Amino acid sequence: MDLLDTLTAKGLRGEVPTREEALAVLATTDDELLDVVAAAGKVRRRWFGRRVKLNYLVNLKSGLCPEDCSYCSQRLGSKAEILKYTWLKPDQAADAARAGVAGGAKRVCLVASGRGPTDRDIDRVTTTMAAIKEADPEVEICVCLGLLSDNQAERLKAAGADAYNHNLNTSEGTYGDIATTHTYADRVDTVQKAHGAGLSACSGLIAGMGESDEDLVDVVFALRELGSDSVPVNFLIPFEGTPLAKEWNLSPQRCLRILAMARFVHPDTEVRIAGGREVHLRSMQPLGLHIANSIFLGDYLTSEGQAGQADLDMIKDAGFEVEGAGEATLPRHRADLAEAAQAAQAAGGCGTAASACGSGGGCGPCGGHSHAPAETAETVPAPAEETATANDELRSDLVKVRRRGAGTELAPNA
Ligand code: SF4
Questions:
Q1: Quick one: which of 381, 309, 326, 391 has its CA closest to 39?
Q2: How far is the CA of 218 from the centre of ligand 1 (A)?
């Protein structure tokens, strides 16, 4: 298939496809699906070998958020029966983190619900990070506290944070449909603040919220423009008690196409299968490992994942290996680009690491893909056999609220 040959060749060179090629990946048929996975797998192995990075979530503060993100079980007015608790103490958080690291996680993700941290919250997280790093100095720490104010990213960096997560979630055009208490521009600003402070930027998306193929391509390219170093691809977990509870739009095949499209647009960036992996990929999870090079181990913030041991078994059975603490995740050239962009942004320049757009007019989208070669797909595949609104049956039985680990008396499942 000419499209896949083109995408593979570009990916092996670390080049970004055109927008039309990315859309064409989403429009491939089920007959073509294994070829799509194989093509994305070649790109994945070129830059990440057979390594799988494991990340472990610690929900420092759960529920009762004043923001209204429609997809979120912790949102304002959520009726989802999730765990609700205020800040974990540093030693409680460190205990939870230790369980994830013992299970094989290389990165611990410290997350708190809320619009954004106060300076006192930054102090709490600083103490928590110190407790975690005292037990294991090698562990990577990613912090996710919402929208950042001036100098908060710098404080987190100085306190030992390695990365900051803030997802764009969906396209700029549809952002207002999923949240009204903050804007897409607010989110971009926080990712830029984090990157500018020298933190690795982790920013991704949520698929399955009723968006179009164009929206998915828009957000995936926007993340490339923003220079995201890791791209979590979430698949909506439709929680009862949230506005998107009935949005069951994803099939395993659709999820694999979305992951492949993300891989082709981010050939040499960490692509992570994030929330919703078990719910939507189901028995196709191992195929996802051929595309993505990173997953979460065990449970999510408010929902349960499969057992940590099942994750490890899946990785081994599929012929992959867990990435070790001493191994670099990003290819060297990609890490150099990220460092250069951080230095440039700290100096007041454009921080669009991956695009090197040279727009000189700030860090907004620069038209996207003019840096990509003029090469285009020679054929456009036949229309997909399924649409974005596939007739997936309602599977609310697959959504299990987290009742163990952080914030409970029960051991986590890492
Ligand atoms: S995604 Fe974050 S900011 Fe939005 S409602 Fe959930 S916890 Fe609050």
A1: 381
A2: 22
